[in-house]
Amino acid sequence: MPATFACPDAPGAIPLEPVEAEACAARLAALGPRAVAWAAANGFTGAAGSVLVLPDAEGGVARVLAGWGTEGTRRRGRFPLAAAAASLAPGVYRLETAPDAAPLTGAALEEACLGWLLAAYRFDRYKPSEREAPLLLPPEGLDTARLEIIAAGAALTQDLINTPASDMGPETLEGRFRALAEVHGAEVEVTAGDALLDANFPMIHAVGRAAAEAPRLLDLRWGREDAQKVTLVGKGVCFDTGGLNIKPGASMGLMKKDMGGAANVMGLAHMIMASGLDVRLRVLVPAVENAISASAFRPGDILTSRKGLTVEVNNTDAEGRLVLADALALASEEAPETLFCLATLTGAARVALGPDIPPFYSDDEVLAAEITAAAARTADPLWRMPFWAPYESLIEPGIADLDNAPSGGMAGSVTAALFLKRFTDVARFAHFDIYGWTPAAKPGRPKGGAMQAARALFSLLEARHGRA
């Protein structure tokens, strides 16, 4: 179940107080000599992520101090309150500030409380959770419903990515897609199997035809028809063997997450629809498995895309851009006001920026500035990279219009982005090369599937379009 806040009338809530390192000694002194001694015995100095549980006279909990660190240490992390949530016993905790301290407000308060909700996520489908998450009672005035919607979108994304391909193939992903649509009264159209050829989605068909479950294009529409069109495209490769250019075993181990783009646009779609944003939303997910069989597409094959551009396949392990190309071409045909593409596309992006900072690409200066600002205010880091025109020649093989895997290994994320750009004519277009995975648990970010870029994009769309 998605995490929620405690009810305002929850009895017995324990005070939970953030304490900055610089103010820690003074605050402990104000609480009395017993608090000073107890903090010294436990080595509590207000360091970021530390927690001090102050006992009452009966041996219960009187108050909890959550270390807030220094300004410098806070810049090195996100979701400071989530560290407390991860270490506290089950119960209800009331967030408050010291009488002489400035209260948490605005974006800092939202980040702190959202982090608490994100820390409560548990993936317990195959093994029951061993520990109940504590509940937070936030200060009055916070839009708790909005934060709960965001947390629910994140949980949906994490559940989809964390589920192994044995239980999350194209058919199951379609089922979850339909269930999301049903919750919000959206319309869904699915084109599957050989019908993809009849409907002119040849590259989606080529990539997915070797798998046991048929490839398909999932298409969701929601919102009033005369609202501004916002289209989300997410890569839905439910498992990637690499095809005939088969991956080594070590590289295949995390490939259940190769539908992370689809999972993230579905989580974002939930946030948009549950919040009632005033947009005409469309979500496109090419759902396939890149498998190996007698019908697998081959290195050297030349495919003709929906847009009519021909593509030489020089590596069957660069399949994500192929299925996205057909979906982006379809999206562009109705000229949406804004088009976002999210995909776990290249290892090059991770080499450049690591797992925490997805690069994004956009030629629209206004949109790029909006994305950067939204990423900063939502603690959802993104970094702009260029559609570098001089590299266009690298994706032009000579024998066909495009090459899906340029040789040399240079600028892999940039050349993949340039490839996708060839299939869209939308001015307000941005592509996000996400990782979709948290390699090691951090505050508010359990190990496993990760929501990336979606919270920033929701904030951007919320600011631009408002609610219906």
Short description:
With 468 residues, the protein is α/β, with parallel strands linked by helices.
CATH topology of the largest domain: Aminopeptidase
User: Ends: how far apart?
Assistant: 27 Å
Poorly predicted ranges (pLDDT <50, ≥5 residues)? none
Shape: elongated
The major beta sheet can be summarized as: 9 strands, mixed
What is the arithmetic mean of pLDDT? 96
How large a portion of the residues is in β-strands, by DSSP E? 15-25%
Classification by helices and strands: alpha/beta
CATH top level assignment of the largest domain: Alpha Beta
Question: Could you please describe the fold and organization of this structure?
Answer:
By secondary structure, this protein is an alpha/beta fold. It folds into two domains: 14-142, Leucine Aminopeptidase, subunit E, domain 1, CATH 3.40.220.10; 147-465, Zn peptidases (Aminopeptidase, 3-Layer(aba) Sandwich). Helix content is 35%, strand content 20%. It has 16 helices and 19 strands. The strands form four sheets. Strands 6, 7, 8, 9, 10, 13, 14, 15 and 17 form a nine-stranded mixed sheet that branches. A five-stranded mixed sheet has the order 2-3-1-4-5, with helices on both faces. A three-stranded mixed sheet has the order 11-12-16, with helices on one face. α6 (144-162) runs antiparallel to α11. It is elongated, with a radius of gyration of 24 Å. The chain starts with 13 loop residues before the first strand and ends with a helix. The mean pLDDT is 96.
